[in-house]
Design goal:
By secondary structure, this protein is α+β, with helices and mostly antiparallel strands. Helices cover 30% and strands 36% of the residues. The protein has one domain: Aminopeptidase (3-Layer(aba) Sandwich), CATH 3.40.630.30. The protein has six helices and eight strands; from the N terminus they run βαβαβααβββαβαβ. It is globular and about 55 Å long.
């Protein structure tokens, strides 16, 4: 990493305590603790109105605006655009207003959710739940048996949503980043 002029960064999974302790002792900071969730797609499908989770590929301009407002910028949108498997974005509404969006892509029989974003004014209005049901509905039609996602542990609202939907924690990980002096 240093030869590429990058700050050293290590991903640590559960049960890698010795390495984690060693890096902590060397003042590597913990970054982005993440939980991976998984559920059977059939457990998340639900009957929805098309307006609740309207499919669109490529994403509409309003979806890009929703992502941008939530801190999901061009670099993360570029990740979505690089996907070579089946993918879809969904636009959620609350009444007549665009309220949220999500991206979902398939690999074999697994659907991976990415970039679920709900406008602050519409949070706790069921938009996130409807978008997750919409993602599961689309994934089910595409033949996916599983739906999964990664979320930072600090995002309490999202973790609460995924737990309320009955998703199981499949794994946890975090990163350790070298102190600034290594930059």
């Amino acid at each position: 990493m240093r030869s590429l002029e990058q700050r050293p960064l290590f991903m640590l999974r559960e049960n890698e305590d010795a390495l984690d302790d060693m890096l902590a002792d060397r003042r590597y900071e913990q970054v982005d603790p993440v939980t991976l969730y998984i559920a059977e797609t059939a457990d998340l499908t639900a009957e929805l109105k098309i307006i609740d989770a309207m499919p669109s590929w490529p994403p509409l301009a309003v979806q890009l605006e929703l992502w941008k407002a939530g801190g999901i910028g061009p670099a993360r949108v570029a990740v979505m655009n690089r996907v070579t498997t089946r993918q879809m974005s969904l636009l959620g509404r609350s009444g007549d207003a665009p309220a949220g969006t999500v991206f979902v892509a398939l690999h074999d029989d697994v659907a991976m959710v990415h970039a679920l974003e709900v406008s602050a004014e519409f949070r706790r209005d069921g938009v996130g739940r409807r978008l997750m049901h919409g993602a599961a509905n689309w994934a089910s039609v595409m033949g996916a048996s599983w739906i999964t996602l990664a979320v930072t542990r600090a995002n309490e609202a999202a973790n609460g949503l995924y737990q309320a939907l009955g998703m199981d924690q499949a794994a946890r990980y975090h990163y350790r980043r070298a102190p600034e002096r290594f930059s």
